[in-house]
C-alpha cells in the first residue's frame, strides 16, 4: 500500500517461475532491476554526433534473509545439471506493483538466468544475507 502518495517497497510483489516450477524466496529485503543498454555514438561528416541507445536486456538482484535452503538448492541443481550436460532453461520473473492511485502495474522479465552473487556470511549473532542476481532478455508490461 502506498504511503502519502509515494510508492514504497511493500507495494511490490514478485513471482519467480523456473523450469522446475515456482521458486519462493524466504524473506526478500531488497529487489533491484535496471535496463542494460548499448550506447553508440555516430559522428557524421557534418561534425555532429548522433547518439543511439539500443536495449540490451535487464539485470538485477534479490537480497534475501536466509530462512531455508531454497536459493542454495536451486543453484546446486543448476550447477549439477550444467556438469551433467543438461540444457539450462531460462526462468521468468513477474513483478506486480500496486500504484499510488490503487491501480496495478504488472511486468514480466523473460529469458531470466540466475547467479548467486553472495551465499552469505555466517556469524554468531547475525542473520545470513544472500544475494541472488539475474540477467533477463526483456521486461514486458502485462498491465
Give a structural overview:
The structure is a single chain. With 143 residues, this protein is mainly β. It has one domain: Pnp Oxidase, Chain A. Helix content is 10%, strand content 55%. Strands 1, 2, 3, 4, 5, 6, 7 and 8 form an eight-stranded antiparallel sheet that branches. A hairpin with a 5-residue loop joins strand 5 and strand 6 (104-118). The longest helix is centred in the middle third of the chain and has 14 residues, at 70-83. It starts with 11 loop residues before the first strand and ends with a strand.
Backbone shape: globular
Uncertain spans:
none
- Average pLDDT rating: 96
**What is the H-and-E element order?**
EEEEHEEEE
- Write down how many β-strands occur, each being a DSSP E stretch of 2 or more residues: 8
Radius of gyration: 19 Å
CATH architecture: Roll
Q: Specify the biggest β-sheet.
A: 8 strands, antiparallel
Determine and state the CATH class: Mainly Beta
**Oligomerization category of the chains in this entry:** single chain
Helix count equals: 1
> Within the CATH hierarchy, at the fold level, what is the topology?
Pnp Oxidase, Chain A
User: How much of the polypeptide forms β-strand, as a percent range?
Assistant: over 45%
Terminal CA distance: 18 Å
User: How many distinct domains?
Assistant: 1
Helix/strand/pairing category: mainly beta
Q: State the helicity in percent bands.
A: under 10%
Amino acid at each position: 500500500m502506498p504511503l502519502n502518495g509515494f510508492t514504497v517497497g511493500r507495494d511490490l510483489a514478485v513471482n519467480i517461475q523456473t523450469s522446475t516450477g515456482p521458486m519462493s524466496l524466504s524473506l526478500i529485503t531488497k529487489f533491484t532491476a535496471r535496463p542494460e543498454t548499448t550506447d553508440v555514438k555516430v559522428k557524421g561528416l557534418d561534425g555532429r554526433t548522433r547518439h543511439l541507445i539500443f536495449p540490451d536486456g535487464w539485470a538485477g538482484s534479490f537480497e534475501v534473509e536466509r530462512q531455508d535452503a531454497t536459493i542454495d538448492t536451486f543453484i546446486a541443481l543448476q550447477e549439477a545439471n550444467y556438469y551433467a550436460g543438461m540444457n539450462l532453461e531460462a526462468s521468468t520473473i513477474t513483478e506486480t506493483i500496486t500504484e499510488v492511485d490503487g491501480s496495478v502495474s504488472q511486468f514480466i522479465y523473460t529469458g531470466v538466468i540466475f547467479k548467486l552473487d553472495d551465499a552469505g556470511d555466517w556469524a554468531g549473532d547475525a542473520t545470513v544475507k544472500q544475494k541472488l542476481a539475474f540477467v533477463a532478455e526483456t521486461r514486458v508490461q502485462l498491465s
